[in-house]
Here is the input.
Amino acid sequence: MSDLVSTIIANYNYWIYITLMMIGLYAMIAKNNLVKKIVGMNIFQTAIILFYVSIGAKRGATIPILEHAHNGHGHGAASHMVHAVDYINPLPHVLMLTAIVVAVATLGVALALAIRVYNRYNTLEEDEILAQIREK
Amino acid sequence: MEVITSIKPLLAVLVSLLVVPILISSTRPNVREGWTFVAAIAKFLIVISMLPTILHGNEIVCTVAEVIPGIAIKFRVDALGMLFALVSSSLWIITSVYSIGYMRGLKEHSQTRYFCFFALCLSATIGVAFSANLLTLFLFYEMLSFATYPLVVHHQDEEARSSGRKYLLYIAGGSIAFVLPAMLISYNLAGTLEFSNQGFLAGTGSKTLMLILLLMFIFGFAKSAIMPVHSWLPAAMVAPTPVSALLHAVAVVKVGVFSIIRILTGVYGINLLASLNLGIVVCYIASFTIIVASLIALSQDGLKRRLAFSTISQLSYIILGVALLSPKGMAGGMTHIAMHAFGKITLFFCAGAIFVATGKKNISEMVGIGKRMPVTMVAFFIGALSVIGLPPCGGFISKWNLVLGTLQADQWPMLVVLLGSSLLNAAYFLPIVYKAFFCTKEESLFEKKIEEAPVWCVVPLAVTAAASIILFFYPQPFFGLANMAVKSMLGG
Amino acid sequence: MSQQYPALLVIVPLLSALLISIAGWVNKKLCFPIAVAALSVAALSSVGLLLRVLDEGVVLYRLGGWDPPFGIAYYVDHLNGLILNVVSFVALFNLIAAKKSVEQEFPEKIGPFYTLYVLMVTGLLGIVVTGDAFNLYVLLEIAALTGYGLLAMGEDRAPLSSLNYLYMGTIGACFYLLGVGYLYIVTGSLNMVDIAGILPNLYQSKAVLAALIICMVGVWLKMAFFPLHAWLPNAYTYAPSAASSLIAPLVTKVMIYVMIRLVLTVFTPKYAFDTLVISHSIVWLACIAIVMGAILALAQRNLKKMLTYVIVAEVGYMVGGFWLGNRDGMTGAILHIVNDALMTLCAFLVVSNIVYKVKGHKFEDLKGLFRTMPFTMGAFVVAALSIIGVPPTCGFFSKWYLISGGISAGQYGFVVALLFSSLINVILFFRIIEIAFYEPFGNDHAHTSQPECIKEAPLTMLIPLLIVAVGLVIVGVYTSDIVTHIIQFAIPKGIL
Here is the structure.
């Protein structure tokens, strides 16, 4: 039992992202309002971004900027050895910059579509829209 | 035996395909029909030019393209294929003449479409006749199925639509649901699809599997109209009569039968069928069809429908003959492809001529018609004799051999079936002829004045009737080809 | 120049998309030629690339000169060499055919349309060419976002259905991203080949299993694998015809390529088929997809919508065929990507011709079309025969491999499902053909020659359509060459 608890606590970042993801997914499936669905979608994407960010982080590590990288060439390489442990992994963070851009773009497209839907049906509630479509 | 490589079989297939664009683009009917003749005669000449080679016991092969690694689209002309190609290409010429008379006589619409698809059908038929493997055969079989559809539904009315549906359901449904998987299973078992004289399935699977595959093939090739997959054929009689004549008495249905013969002899092989006792299974299926179809024919009033049921029963003669697995029976069955073709096409031509001249479709309305259309009805009589199997008509030769075949195979029940059904044939054909000529004045529905159908209609039916008689005296080359085919299949 | 093909493939359309968008402000007439030029370059590059692959084997292109696994590598082998050609040529043909219908449907949005169109093709080509798992995600979203825009240009409820598509598509892409995240945690790499090299020691890891499942679910969502297909029919049906005839043939097929690529290159067949025992279940899912797709198609009274359900069934063909796990099945699946893209293109081009002339794609709108649009309907018949699987059209040959794979894997359920859907296809398509052929029933239909009144679509729409229709037969006849020279090398040697 204590094993389980300690695993859960040790991996708390995963639990947060899973919780967020489920909240987002729930909103997308269960909400009736199209904009609420979009909000859910954004939470969903953010959860995954957080997941990536958290896997790059390390306890006690610093940002990955190598101060003496330039004069480290040739001589004294051993004394200036870069210890990967001291730095957080930059790659997932960089990837997530791209993912954020994608998320923003998706949000933009989604909102634009929502506006067009609203202009046509004068509502954003999905059941009302479907009722209008069925009437036709 | 030599194997000669030549592109002639390919040409024979392509010649009618190539003429299609010309047919579509020609604006004047006379030009269009002219090209149809060119194609028909060219096809016939190409086929005939291969005849001597085949009669010398050689084979002609032509590989077109390897479409799936290991399986090519390939043509192989052997005696059996030659027999069938000869029948259909020669009858196409005659039918083209008849088509002109019939279609113009009735002022049918969309004649260009009609002639185009007719040409396509003939390409497919010759393709089936010359296929060297199951895939090629399947390809042309399917091509024929879909090329015939516009011909069957030519009238474009509701009746045509429902017939067209039935037609597709049986023909396309059967080939996709049964033949395609059966073919793939065979390929998986044997690793080849090439027809060979001894078959390629021997020793590849259990008896049950072989039986299931055989049934899938036989009922999948629904064009052979074996019961219970026969009911598309009477429905397809909504087509214009030349279509019924050439396609539903010769090309399409014989393609079905031909495919089954190929399956029996080229895929299974005589020895395998005999050792597993599968031949007799097929015999019983065929004889059931023969008897039941004849009985149904008796009760039909529509002339074309009666002919259709007669066709169903006659087709099963061919299958029965081959499934007897005795030399005489097989030769008789294969010869029957030709003999029945000439006899039945005459009958259909007559039915069409009657319709063109008088507009009558039902037998009950044809009392006394012999006085109005004597030539047609005499031809009808000759055709009927040939189909019944009486001398002096070609049908006698094949039936005689079939009967001998049952004796050779020691299958007494089949002998009874053959003789019984011949009686039934007589019972449903001869009254028509009798009523047409010998009826009292009160009964006669027609005036005495002679008024035949257009000459384009009458000449072809006279020719095929004459051919039926000539075939009695000179059954060559058909009978010879059939004997050669049997000899090679029995491993002689 | 020839060394740069992989880059040209993506860069040229990407930059021309910008150019088109600028040209749209200046002069709308410039947009179309630029788009054609861009896609022609892409098409030529993909041909060149395929020839090079056939000649030298795998082509590795380092973007910006960075070595993998650190830089992004474009990785072209026989599999994506083939798919690249399909994508670029389908896009090019459709672009040419689309010109008139774009001018008719939204003359004021020509610039944006071509921009999105070319961008989308960029995305699709990029998905196919890339060898980097994360790069694939970005390109996936480029293709998807432009796709939403294109689909939303349509009539009636198009914005709503593309919004729904957007929700589902985003979930799908995020799932993929998540799966890649798991892979990254355990391997520390994003390069596909590199991951595959590291994975064998981790076959027992639960994270790898989770990555596979999450990636698959994401990809299935995007390819509309039943029961994750709900977004597809409406999104494609109400889209403008020029957009749906680009998206319908390509997007689902490219996603199938992604699935194949992930399993073959990233997770390796050894893991997916030998270590795990999921392939049978997936084949059964595919069977359900095929059957349900066919049945749902049967319930439609609208040509375009019916075709969308046919796509759902066809996705089942390919997923099932691939997960059979044997050589025939995979050959069938890959061949079917090619064939189905062409068949679907042909069918949707027919729809766009019909919409151009008749302004509708309900069944009632199709009456009498054989008389008025004989060439278009002729092409439709060819497409129909190919989808049914009649030789010598190409659809037959991929079905041949799929069924043959099913038989040798002993998956008779899959065989039956394929045959069932072929039979349903006969009904589906001949129902259309019947309506177009018989109706309207005239009074004196039988014996009068109706006046010929051909009202065909313009030549720029008709000629690409006819080329594609003829192509269906030609590709069918050359199946053997495609299989022996290309697909055979696309499948790892270990798979028998």
The helical segments of chain A are 2-10, 12-30, 34-56, 90-121, 126-135. Chain A has one domain: 2-59+82-135.
